Amino acid sequence: MSEQFEMYDDPFKMLILLATLISEKQGVELKYENVPSYENDVFSIQHQKFVYKKDGTEITWFEFLGRDISSSHDLSRSEYNKMFVDCMASLYSL
């Protein structure tokens, strides 16, 4: 049995990558204290909250992206990876 490749080993890094892609798509600089708002059918992200609409997972942080970060669901690394890959694909309609 082969090991599953994990793009990132930390959900926080995946969230930063997603925020970075949104910033690039909007043509703005990512500022951790002011994450750009974005919403589609798969997820939404605002200043201090990310929501994965397919299962209701909410990730929140205090003031700056990454500070006091918490999730409403206790997911495995693999589940976080799948969630964020789905979100990234939805940015580009893949």
Description:
With 94 residues, the protein is of the alpha+beta class. It has one domain (25-91). The protein is built from two helices and five strands, in the order H-E-E-E-E-E-H. Strand 3 and strand 4 form a beta hairpin. It is globular, with a radius of gyration of 13 Å. It starts with 10 loop residues before the first helix and ends with a helix.
Compact description:
Strands 1-2-3-4-5 form a five-stranded antiparallel sheet, with no helix packed on it. The chain is built from two helices and five strands; from the N terminus they run H-E-E-E-E-E-H. It has helices at residues 11-26, 77-91, and strands at 38-39, 43-46, 49-52, 57-60, 70-71.
Please describe the topology of this protein.
Blueprint: H1 11-26, E1 38-39, E2 43-46, E3 49-52, E4 57-60, E5 70-71, H2 77-91
Outline: globular
Individual helix count: 2
Strand order of the largest sheet: 1-2-3-4-5
Query: Quick one: how many beta strands?
Result: 5
Radius of gyration: 13 Å
Query: SSE order in H/E notation?
Result: HEEEEEH
Let me know the average pLDDT.
86
Structural class, from secondary structure content?
alpha+beta
Percentage of residues in strands: 15-25%
Number of domains: 1
How far is the N terminus from the C terminus?
29 Å
Low-confidence stretches: 1-8
Helix content: 25-40%
Summarize the main sheet: 5 strands, antiparallel
